[in-house]
Design a protein that fits this description.
Helix content: 25-40%
CATH topology of the largest domain: Arc Repressor Mutant, subunit A
Shape: globular
Order of helices and strands: EEEEEEEHHH
Distance between the termini: 21 Å
Number of strands: 7
Structural class: alpha+beta
Largest sheet: 5 strands, antiparallel
Strand order of the largest sheet: 4-3-2-1-5
CATH architecture of the largest domain: Orthogonal Bundle
């Protein structure tokens, strides 16, 4: 799998994930992953978090979100994912314990795990494709 995690971002205060198509001094031109075909411009002052920089807290430190997603992709979870809106807490925690056995149960909240699972659903087509566009 060859996904460019740095070009995939979350924008503070916005629903969904975005792919950076190009950047300039004035801002970012992006495409929505959860609303395919929708392209937007965000100013340079927009708070952007690259998925390649987001970390999941573990008992021994931290692991990258991209590593977690790649483990989920390789795990039996991939073919039959759980619905983050419908799944109960036990199902979600069980999944994370299987994929990241030493995740920190005290500091990784259920709401964070649900968000990560929602994001994963939007990323699955890109992961299946094997690559993403790089920054322009």
């Amino acid at each position: 799998m060859n996904v460019n995690w740095k070009s995939l971002v979350h924008i503070a205060g916005k629903h969904g994930l975005f792919r950076v198509l190009s950047t300039s001094r004035s801002g970012y031109f992006m495409e929505s992953l959860n609303e395919p075909g929708k392209r937007l411009f965000f100013s340079a002052s927009t708070r952007v978090a690259s998925l390649g920089d987001i970390m999941l807290l573990t008992k021994s430190g931290e692991t990258s979100l991209s590593e977690t997603y790649e483990k989920m992709w390789g795990d039996a979870y991939s073919p039959d994912p759980i619905d983050p809106h419908q799944a109960n807490e036990e199902e979600i925690r069980s999944l994370f314990a299987r994929v990241v056995p030493d995740y920190d149960e005290a500091r990784v909240y259920l709401s964070d795990m649900r968000k990560m699972l929602r994001w994963y659903e939007w990323l699955r087509p890109l992961m299946a494709e094997g690559s993403t566009e790089t920054l322009g």
